[in-house]
Amino acid sequence: MASVSACSGSVSIGGPDAVAEPELEQRVATALAEQMNQPVPNIDCPGNLAAEVDASIQCVLSVTGDTTRYPVDVRVTSVNGDDDVRFSAQVGTTPLPTDG
């Protein structure tokens, strides 16, 4: 994914507290794939994302068959009621260091 950038999306959380990690990962991956017209990447987030404007979390993007990983900064842009959280996701241009 040489030309990765930013995207936005929304997620229904079913409650006022946080976007669950699996739902967040799936929504970010889908939004990035649609934005870049690429296959859905693997997204790994370290936990839930608080359903508060400006809450943020750093996730990791990887592509099957490639060991290169990129940081993805996910930030809540708005919260509408108890079940609609909108976010932006910005993929870093510098790969993360490899493990090992």
From TrEMBL:
Superkingdom field: Bacteria
InterPro entries: DUF4333 (IPR025637)
Occurrences of domain DUF4333 (ranges): 3-81
Pfam families: DUF4333
Name of this protein: DUF4333 domain-containing protein
